Amino acid sequence: xxxxxxxxxxxxxxxxxxxxxxxxxxxxxxxxxxxxxxxxxxxxxxxxxxxxxxxxxxxxxxxxxxxxxxxxxxxxxxxxxxxxxxxxxxxxxxxxxxxxxxxxxxxxxxxxxxxxxxxxxxxxxxxxxxxxxxxxxxxxxxxxxxxxxxxxxxxxxxxxxxxxxxxxxxxxxxxxxxxxxxxxxxxxxxxxxxxxxxxxxxxxxxxxxxxxxxxxxxxxxxxxxxxxxxxxxxxx
Amino acid sequence: xxxxxxxxxxxxxxxxxxxxxxxxxxxxxxxxxxxxxxxxxxxxxxxxxxxxxxxxxxxxxxxxxxxxxxxxxxxxxxxxxxxxxxxxxxxxxxxxxxxxxxxxxxxxxxxxxxxxxxxxxxxxxxxxxxxxxxxxxxxxxxxxxxxxxxxxxxxxxxxxxxxxxxxxxxxxxxxxxxxxxxxxxxxxxxxxxxxxxxxxxxxxxxxxxxxxxxxxxxxxxxxxxxxxxxxxxxxxxxxxxxxxxxxxxxxxxxxxxxxxxxxxxxxxxxxxxx
Lengths: 236, 274
Fold this sequence. Notes:
A: five-stranded antiparallel β-sheet; 12 strands; B: 6 helices; proteasome (chain A); Proteasome subunit beta (chain A); cytoplasm (chain A); nucleus (chain A)
């Protein structure tokens, strides 16, 4: 009797090819909150695979005098999301009215933070491939860092690094900012100390991560507003 | 002909009409199935998306210099490995100060040309003294490319946009996933491997695009086109160069790369041709 199951034949599946709408453009971002300041930093390299598309593209954008957003991942998604945040700060999706025009004030850092979470979750089933860090000052003037995953989970932290070199930098921040595994007591860091840690993080990450390099943009947010510092990184 | 007098004078049921072209006669597929499976177009066929390019153009090069932007692309449209159309213009003048260059699917490029031209005509008809400058066209093109990729139906191109606006030179590129970026030098496709190192080295040595004269930039671009022709199997010796300066746009007649290369040493080598 013949078997109906062709068990000895090799299993072959048809080769399917589907368009992948995402691309990982690399890049690293970092934000550290201080007592009365916040630092947001990101490199400016835009890569795809082994190719560098361009050496300068801004990954961080000033949203207000108190808030800066930084994003990494799929650059097209990041740019679209940034644009939509800026539009919603004028005309809000959360409340169907123009926020600034309706309330006569700029959105606070906490309000933008909540809105961004909603905006990311709204695209839960076709997500923006973007790692977001929101840095700024809260209503009391203290430094605030909000971090997100691509589908909108978020929390407020003291510091965070995201993007291609995050696994290199975050443990360093855990040790230097949060004093993990240190004998010394936790203490507040000055702006100068935070800036030195930020620059050291990026120069070190550039040595080992091919997707990080070219230039570093550092946004310093204080009660006086937002100041932008630029620094060169290795271009190899 | 409808033989039922009760239907006479009433609107025709287009789903049952087999001579219509739109909406396509789809009476072969039950209505319910059509709605589920997205049968919207040709009779009984599902909607299809581009999954790969068909007739393609290879690299486009772009380079900023002191007074403007130069772009170069060859005139070949390939069908796989077949050199199918050998006098296709891949550099297109969008406006008085903007040029678009396309690599990738040629029919998608022709569609985008149509969109851009329609947009420019709209601006002209408004007759309000405004027109779209290079950064605006770039933004428009970016939204189109990103929107199509989000519909999982991309325009299979990498576009290079060059221009001059308010005394600033503009050179940017957008790919099929809607990634927009600007750079002093841009090379798409195989050119990103062959020409980018040459262009970036020259720019570094000159200390930036503002130190590059038009003559130097043009010489460099021709050298890059030569290397692309010699090593990119999907390229052609026939190419055009576009220059965008504050004076406006000029796209050259097709040039020939063959006189610039030397093959005489191969004449007497066995197995090297003749």
